[in-house]
Amino acid sequence: MTTPFTAALRAGAFMALMGATAASAAECIAPANPGGGWDFTCRQIGRILQEIGVEKNLVQVTNMAGAGGGVAYTHVVSQRNTDPELIVAASSATTTRLAQNAYAGMTADQVRWVGAIGGDPGVIVVGKDSPFQSLADLIAAVKADPSKVAFAGGSAVGGFDHLKVLMMMARAGFDNARAVKYIGLDGGADAITQTVGGFAQAMTGDLSEIQGFIRSGDVRPLAVLAESRVAGFEDIPTAKEQGINLVAMNWRGLYAPKGISDAEFARWTEALQKVGDSDQWKQVMAENGLAPYTLTGAEFESWVADNIAEIRAISREIGIIQ
What we know:
D-Maltodextrin-Binding Protein, domain 2
């Protein structure tokens, strides 16, 4: 016979069990509002982690917008430093802002960098009637007279589109970053308009935002800034093929709290690698114009440190930071 007392006990036990389950569920913080790239990263990785059996429970997604990712970064460092069930979406914007001290004194070594498993490759394009037939032609023109070659991009001065151009020229042996002309615009569409109209001699952006203009023939791609040629765009050579050792991806990945153990960190790197290897993630990339870009664990942490050092040096040279 079930009495009100035993019923209450059972209900209490059930609620305790549900609380324990919820407490043990992993959480992914998306440092922006729903609908953006970081939100996409959390939701897709979280979904796949459960589908492939790495996580038993659905990964909870928490949107924490503010300061271009800075609010979430500060929250993790100051309040969640030892939480082994927490991961946070990150991208090239995260490391760029850290390099430029946009997170109010926060530094990259205050978290652990789990890995990247895909990205939107950068691309360099020119107008369809441009005299530049190769990346070498474009670079040679900049070296000959930087004032005559303007690059348009969808980010502000010092943003990632600008940095792609500066890193490309640095790798080509041109060390006067301030002399490189860059027109920062509000999005890739405006940058394309400038290039098609002849107001800029070249444009830099992400392949996903430019692919329609490439397919229509309005612009002509000179290089994709990926490790290898991108599926669906196999006729676009990489910068590396043309002697410029540059991979510039708007990568998608994760970081975790600094204070977790090495074993807990290894668990997340292995989990992310499994997501990257899954058929589900390959489908996500194909459907969303992403290219494979997998770096995890110590290899990724080393890459992040080098990337931030390079961005900081270039940003200092052009006056973004002191």
